[in-house]
Design a protein that fits this description.
The chain is mainly α. The protein folds into three domains: 1-35; 37-197, Cytochrome Bc1 Complex, Chain D, domain 2; 199-285, Cytochrome c-like domain (Cytochrome Bc1 Complex, Chain D, domain 2), CATH 1.10.760. The chain has helices at residues 2-31, 53-65, 87-96, 107-116, 150-163, 178-189, 203-209, 238-246, 265-268, 271-282; strands at 217-218, 221-222. A two-stranded antiparallel ribbon has the order 1-2. The model is unreliable at 27-42 and 177-193 (pLDDT under 50).
Length: 285
Amino acid sequence: MGSVAGMRNLIKVMSFSLLTIAAFAGYSNFGIPVIKPALPPVEEQLDLESMTMDQFIALGERVFNGKGTCTLCHSAVGGRAPLLDTIATTAKERLADERYQGEADTAEAYLFESMVKPSAYVVSGFGKAGTNDTESPMPDVAGGGIGMSDAETKAVIAYLQNLAGEEVTVEIPIDGGDMASSAESESETVADSDAKPVILEDPEAIIVKHACGACHKVADQVGALGPDLTQIGANRDEAYLRRAILDPNADIPEGFQPNIMPNTYGEQLYAKELEVLVTYLAGLK
């Protein structure tokens, strides 16, 4: 009798366990709302042929404050790079400076050169340490993690000329080049609202995508405005690195100012991308 009763109790326990597991499985699959992450931001599709100069200037302002990451350094906070409010006016003075090593002969050409060959002229006090202001820490905006197109660069020039109250001499390029084709291809990629988001698993690709190298030396990027990350894992653990990315003002490294690094990476990075990046940085020893 005892063995029969024991068997019954065992069957009851097993049945209850199976029902509990089935209930949890059903709730996890059907009871919890499915959260779809937002798709990556899409570059705006531009019709340069019909764009007015005011629209082109507005485009330059958006690139300046967004994709170009210009305000990370060229801002009143931190003083890491010169302010650019009057750069279209002072460009003429810099062309006449004996320290100028570039090839530009107009203010417009100087502005373009300053973005793609920033070491052609380095403002006193803003060069890389130890170079006597002969080498700029600023990256080439056309390459690396920023990747501005020719049209975007010219739009920023138009914006800076207008900002300084100077005549806008830039002509709107009829051929948008890589920017137009990029916008078209990306818009096709995310045209379907149910399209799978592109989640990067290569840490160096994540670094390039989010322009980390514009400020940091890491993964073949040569930024010098933020802390050197090439051996960051030697004295920082994953918890610190994760916090530093999501809340950069939580712990400011010595010698650096707060409010420089954007605090929006928690919204821009997918959770998996964040963990891939944290693991990669923690391994740099």
